[in-house]
# Entry
Amino acid sequence: MVTVQILVVDDHPVVRRAICSLLSTDPLLNVTCEVADGKQAVLKAEEVQPDLILLDISLPGMSGIEAARRILKVSPKSKIIFLSQHDSLQMAKDAMETGGHGYVSKTDAGGELIRAIHAVREGNLFVSKRIASQGWTPRMLTGTGT
# Structure
């Protein structure tokens, strides 16, 4: 199988290292680069054209949601999984409506992140159990045809 090229975007170096360490346990996942803010994320996505982007929502300067909108214009084949401290159903809905393919709560990342990546890689949407337990359904998304 082909490895998944991943861009990790989070403003906390410790979180980025933890994510990279977790992803290194799966031989099909390859972190090609990591950046600390939305502007860098857009530039790197355009340059690298990663298969998948793990994108924090709370970033300095430009939110992850705004970065996602810009990323999908410069790297339209990249799939985005939001990785956030926000466990709000509304926040997940807002993020996914930008074109995201997944939403993982940082609280659940240890047990769900790799599963989310593989689900998205197979063409599915993924949301954390915390979000699903609040009543998530793909039909909540407007204009996506789902």
Summary: The domain at 4-140 is CATH 3.40.50.2300 (Rossmann fold). The mean pLDDT is 92. DSSP finds six helices and six strands in the chain. Strands lie at 4-9, 29-35, 52-55, 79-84, 102-105, 126-127.
